[in-house]
Specification:
seven-stranded mixed sheet; globular; two-stranded antiparallel ribbon; about 325 residues; alpha/beta
C-alpha cells in the first residue's frame, strides 16, 4: 500500500471515529434531556352534585381547591374538573393518568351507570382516587369492582360513618406522606372498610383508634354492627385512608375524610391528598412532598354550591376547624 493510500485510510478512520463520538455524545445528551424533562400527567376530577348544604360535601369547590393546589405545585400536572359526577363527553377520560371521584356514593354513585367505561380506563392503568362518600358503593353492584380497582370500599352493614376527631399520631414511610406531619382532624371518618383479602397491595396511610363514642348509634347499614362494635371495644386501629398498588398495574387511593369543606384549609390534609393524587398518576413525589398549603377561610367560603346561612360565623368556623391563616 502506498503512503498516500495509508494516509487516506487513516483519515477515513479518524472521520469515522469523530462521527461515532458525535453520535454517542448526541445520544447521551438526548437521554439526559429526556431524563430531566418532566413527564406530563393529566388528572380528571369528577365532582358530584350539590348534596349536604353549606360547608359539607362541597364536591365541586373541593375539587377546584385540590386541582389548583396541584397545578401550582406541579406544573407538569394538568388538572381538569368536571361537575355533575360524570363528564358529558367521556372522551376526556381517554388520556387521563388519574380519575378522581369526589361525589355522593351508595345507590346514587355516578359510577354505577358507567362501570364498564370506568373499568376500561382502570384496566389500561389509569390511577383511581375516591374521596369521602365516593368510597361507598352497593355491595352487590359496584362493590366487587371497587374492591378490585380501589383495594377497599365502604360496605354497608360492615363499615360505619360516625363523626369523630381522628388523631393520626404516626404516618407510614410512603411517597404520599412526604412532608406531612401527624395531625388530628374532626371529620366524618368512615372506618371498618372492606379491604381485599390479606390487604394484599394495600398500604394504610391514615390510621387511628376510634373512641367508644363512635358506637352510640344503633345498628344499621351505616351506623353499627356486631363486627365493628367488637373492633372498637378492643381498641383496634382503623384505616381511614389507604394506597393501593393494583396487581395488574396502576395505583389507587381511598380517603374517607372530606365531609367538612373546612378541612381543605389544613395544609397537612391538602398535602396528603394532593401527594396521593399525583402519586396515582405514576409521577414522582418530591422528598418534602408537594409545596401546597391549606386554603384560607375566604377561599373556602367562595364557590360553594349554596349560600351561607345567616348564622354562619367565619371566624368561629376557622377556629373550630383550625383553618390556617396566611
Amino acid at each position: 500500500m502506498s503512503h498516500c493510500a495509508i494516509a487516506n485510510f487513516a483519515a477515513r478512520g479518524c472521520c469515522t471515529l469523530v462521527l461515532l463520538g458525535l453520535c454517542l455524545t448526541s445520544t447521551l445528551a438526548n437521554a439526559q434531556e429526556a431524563k430531566s424533562t418532566p413527564q406530563w400527567k393529566k388528572v380528571v376530577f369528577l365532582a358530584g352534585n350539590p348534596s349536604h348544604g353549606y360547608g359539607a360535601h362541597e364536591h365541586l369547590a373541593g375539587c377546584r381547591i385540590l386541582a389548583e393546589a396541584i397545578e401550582r405545585a406541579a406544573p407538569e400536572v394538568t388538572c381538569k374538573v368536571y361537575p355533575g359526577g360524570w363528564p358529558e363527553d367521556e372522551s376526556v377520560l381517554n388520556k387521563a393518568d388519574t380519575i378522581v371521584m369526589y361525589c355522593d356514593g351508595g345507590g346514587g354513585h355516578p359510577a354505577l351507570k358507567h362501570l364498564d367505561t370506568l373499568g376500561k380506563h382502570i384496566e389500561r392503568g389509569a390511577g383511581f382516587v375516591c374521596l369521602h362518600y365516593a368510597v361507598e358503593i352497593p355491595n352487590d353492584h359496584g362493590g366487587p369492582e371497587f374492591l378490585k380497582w380501589l383495594g377497599g370500599y365502604f360496605e354497608t352493614h360492615w363499615s360505619v360513618n360516625p363523626h369523630w376527631t381522628a388523631d393520626f399520631t404516626m404516618l407510614p414511610d410512603h411517597a404520599i406522606t412526604r412532608g406531612v406531619k401527624p395531625f388530628a382532624a374532626n371529620d366524618e371518618w368512615y372506618f371498618h372498610m372492606r379491604f381485599v383479602p390479606d390487604m394484599t397491595g394495600v398500604t394504610p396511610i391514615l390510621t387511628a383508634v376510634p373512641p367508644q363514642e363512635t358506637m352510640l348509634r344503633p345498628d344499621g347499614p351505616h351506623s353499627g354492627n356486631p363486627a365493628v362494635r367488637k373492633e372498637v371495644a378492643r381498641g383496634a386501629p382503623q384505616h381511614v385512608a389507604w394506597a393501593y398498588e393494583r396487581p395488574g398495574g396502576g395505583r389507587s387511593f381511598g380517603f374517607t375524610g372530606g365531609h367538612y369543606h373546612w378541612n381543605w384549609g389544613r395544609s397537612d390534609i391538602v398535602k396528603l391528598v394532593s401527594n396521593a393524587i399525583v402519586w396515582t398518576t405514576g409521577a414522582d413525589i418530591p422528598a418534602d412532598g408537594l409545596a401546597v398549603s391549606g386554603a384560607p377561610i375566604e377561599v373556602l367560603e367562595a364557590g360553594q354550591d349554596e349560600a351561607p346561612p345567616s348564622s354562619f360565623d367565619a371566624e368561629k368556623t376557622r377556629e373550630e376547624f383550625q383553618v390556617e391563616q396566611r
